[in-house]
């Protein structure tokens, strides 16, 4: 009898111990590792004067938890109201470029406590049907956030769609615009690879990249091929500059974001007038994936989806050389317009 009581007591102690450890881990996750940073997060510049846009980082971490609960439907409207959460239009948009690293950039910026991201591509400005639903429909697609925070969305098709610059200008003529680019030939091959994977998933055949990128009649670069056309960055940027000054754009080096993400993110923080909050602690290299992953706190880590970093098919070196020669003058003009020279061949 005594032996059974001892066993029962030992089991109870194990259960209580597990609950205690679980509760401790939960609290650590809620508070987050950002307590190691400065206790106040000011947002400066046009997004609010210093002093008016300050709130504790602990509150920000609690906000992340509350927003998570709200998205799951576990938080009442009263709770949202009490914590001053609102759905606001974006103050910055990642407008492109497709296969340039837009998803990686958005997820990395979300490490900053003053940034709130729209999880899905809204496709408001490039989709006539969505645009006809009006600006309030767009606003309601945004995540809940504090008024002092910056909401950011990304839709890569914005960069190449003719109607988008004017539509965004009508919403907010002073909005900040982020463009993440990769070496044009690499980006075109990555674009092709994504389409190819989609075709193979449906058991459909598809042309080789060389046949699409080079016109068989002229043996010159096929500018009618969308993957090539998208990589002529300067042509698309010139259309945007009819509505926005170059100072409202920031160019992110997508190739460098893969290998050295922190310096690129620090440049974006400066462009958005955000205090520096993202550190090397938040980024760790995953040798298995071959990419940097994100560390929000000691509990919560996140890597990008497995579809990122697809292996590119082998492409005829002569075609790569021809494409790089074709893109070269456009790249030089892009450097001149943006004031940023990138290490492209």
From TrEMBL:
UniProt record, GO biological process: heparan sulfate proteoglycan biosynthetic process; negative regulation of coagulation; regulation of viral entry into host cell
Protein location: Golgi apparatus membrane
InterPro entries linked to this entry: NST/OST, P-loop_NTPase, Sulfotransferase_dom
Tagged with keyword Membrane: yes
Entry keywords, A to Z: Disulfide bond, Glycoprotein, Golgi apparatus, Membrane, Signal-anchor, Transferase, Transmembrane, Transmembrane helix
Residue intervals of the Sulfotransferase domain: 90-334
UniProt topology in membrane: Single-pass type II membrane protein
Disulphide-bridged cysteine pairs: 293-303
GO cellular component: Golgi membrane
UniProt keyword annotation of Protein biosynthesis present: no
Binding-site residues, 3'-phosphoadenylyl sulfate: 99-103, 182, 190, 292, 308-312
Reactions listed under catalytic activity: alpha-D-glucosaminyl-[heparan sulfate](n) + 3'-phosphoadenylyl sulfate = 3-sulfo-alpha-D-glucosaminyl-[heparan sulfate](n) + adenosine 3',5'-bisphosphate + H(+)
EC number in record: 2.8.2.-
Gene3D superfamilies, A to Z: P-loop containing nucleotide triphosphate hydrolases (3.40.50.300)
Protein family (similarity comment): Belongs to the sulfotransferase 1 family.
Protein name (database record): Sulfotransferase
Lineage of source species: Eukaryota, Metazoa, Chordata, Craniata, Vertebrata
